[in-house]
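EI: anyone free to look at a 340-residue chain?
SC: sure, send it
EI:
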Amino acid sequence: MTEKTAKKRHNMRDVARYAGVSVATVSRVVSGASSVADTTQARVRSAIDALDFVPSAAARVINSGRSYMVGALVPTLDHAIFSRFLDALERELADHGFSLVVATTHDEPDREARRAQDLLNLGVEGFVVSGLSHSDAFGDLIARYKTPVIATSYFDPSSPLVTVGYDNGAAALRALDHLVEMGHETIAVLSGPMRDNDRTRARVRALKRQPAHALQFHDVPMGLAASESVEDVLRSDPRVTAILCLSDVIAQGVMNGLRRLDVRVPEDMSVVGVDDLPSSQSIWPPLSSVHLPVTRMGTGAAERLARWIETGERARPLELETRMVARSTVRSLDGRAREP
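SC: here you go
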C-alpha cells in the first residue's frame, strides 16, 4: 500500500532561494512594485510558476501594506434596497481592483463601531456606511486610523462625512405632492422606527413642515408586519383617503392589511411608497412610489472611495435625484383620469 503525501506548499523564502534573490525582492514583485529590474522580475515570476507559489492574503497585507479591501456597514441584508446597493457597489469596486467585505449593524450605533473595528483589524482601507448618525466610538476609530468614509442614502454637503445620496426630505415631499395633486387632503403617514435612522427622521421632518395638509403620523413595524397596523390607522380617522408609506416594504404590508379588511386599492384607499423596489412593480396593483437611485448610489460611492484611497485626495459629495413613479395605487378624487 502506498502512502499518499500532501504536496508541500511553498513560501516566499522558497521562491527567493529558487530565483537567487532576497525575500524582500520577491515581496516587491508580488506586491507589484515597479522598482525591480525587468530581468529580476522575470526570474522571480519564473520561480513562482515553477513552485506553484500562491501568496496568502495576509502575506500580501504584511508585505505591501495594502489589503485592497473596502468595508460596507449596512443596517441589514434582509431588504432588497440594500441588496441592489451592495451589488452595484461590489461590481464597481471590483473594476477598481478592490474587494468588498460586508457587515450588518441593525441600526445600532454601538454594534456598528464594533463591526468597524473588526473590519479594520482585517485591514480594510475604507468604509461605506448608511446615513449620517454614527456613534462617537465610530468617529474616534475613523480619526485614529485616518480611514476614508463615504456616507450613503443621504446628501448633505456640510457633513463632516462625504455624502453620496439624495435629499430624503425631498423624496417624501414628492410622494405628498403626488397625493395632493390627485385631490387627497387627509393623509396618513406611516414610518418605521426613527431612533437610529436619520433617513426616516429627515422624511418625517420634511412632512411635518407642511401645515397646509392634514397629515396624521403613525410609527409602524417595518416590512409586511405593517399590515397589522392598518386597522388602527383607519380607525383613527375615517376621513383618511390615502396612506403615504415612507418605505415600499411598509407600503406592501399596508396593501396586504387593506386586502384582509376588504378595503380596495385604489378604489377605497390610495397608497404610495418611497423606494421603488423591483417587487413594487410586480405586486397587484403595481405600487406608485418615489424612485431612489440606489444603483447609481452604489456606483458613485465606489468610484469616489476607490479614487480617495488611491490618491489620498478627499472625495467630493454627490447628489442624486429622486423621482415619482406613478403606477396604479392612487385614485384621483377631483375627476381627472386615474393613474395608469
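EI: Residues 1-5 have pLDDT under 50 and may be disordered.
SC: 👍
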